[in-house]
Structure formats: structure tokens, C-alpha cells
Amino acid sequence: MLDEQSRNLRVFAWDLYNYGRGIIMRRTTVLLIGCLFLFVLVQAGGGAPKKQEVTIQLTEFAFKPNKITLTKGVPAELKLSNKGSVTHEFMVYAPPKAGMSMEDVEKWAEDQSYFKDLEVTVEGAGIEVVGKGIFEVEIEAGKSAEIKFTPTKAGTFEIGCHLPGHYEAGMKGTLVVK
Fold first, then answer.
1. What order do you get walking across the sheet with 172-177 strand by strand?
2. Closest Cα to residue 160, out of 137, 126, 134, 132?
3. Domain containing 39: what range?
């Protein structure tokens, strides 16, 4: 009887040992899977954005959306689509001073272009331009173009179409770079 009790006690101890090992193994496995999940999540999308994409429609006589926010230092792609029935242009520049004439505003927009000293690529609408000194993108009705650049200057800038009568009709907006 003592041998049987001793044997039962050993079997019980062995079962308890294996039960404990099983719990530890399950907890370790769950912990490892959790860590792996977090690692994948951070690598996939938890880090800094790799590219900013904004689609902008040009119509009579508006930009939709008329306010765009970008992050400084993160590559940006502005996808311009002229949904209107006439040609429009897209310009980004420092806001003009109050009381300027239309002629002065147009000159100001060229001189104060956001893209002036940036490496910019413009593709589409039958054009492909890469370089510095780009100050406007003109898009015919029904056409599209894409502007690729990395914002380097933070601040608030104006977007405008300076074809005759368009700006005066309200075709302007805001670009904010944070």
C-alpha cells in the first residue's frame, strides 16, 4: 500500500510538474506572439509616414479641397485633376500683401513660389519636368498632373490660379506645412 501511495504521489508530482511546464510554455508562447505582433505593427505603419498623397480637383473656380496640410520633410505627391471645362493653373506661394493689384499679385506669386528652390517633378498633362525654378503647373480641361516634392519650408502659403479672371472669381486656397 505504501508503494502504491508512493507511486501515486510520484505520478501526481510528475503530472503537476508537467501541468506547470505547460502553463509556462503557453504564457511564453503568448508573450512571444504578442511581441512579434507589436514589432510587425511598428514596422508596417507605426513609424513615420513614407509619403504624403493629396488629390486636388480644379474646377470653375475652386480647388477641392481648398486647404491642404503637409508635413515638412516627408515626400509629398499632389495629384491635380482638372474637372473643369477650361484650363486652370496651380501655384503655391507666400500670401500676397493686402491691397496689391492683380498684376502685382501675379508677379508676387511667381517671385514667392514655394517650389522656387526645391527639386520638383511634374508629370502628366502631356508634360514631364524635373528641376528647380518651377512656379506653376497649367492643366488643360479633363487632364491630370502630379507634383512630387519634399516640403522644406514650414508655414502657411496661398494656392492660386492666376489665369485671367480665375483668382478674382475665388480660385484660391491654402497650403499649410507643419
1. 67-70, 172-177, 155-160, 88-93, 137-139
2. 137
3. 1-47
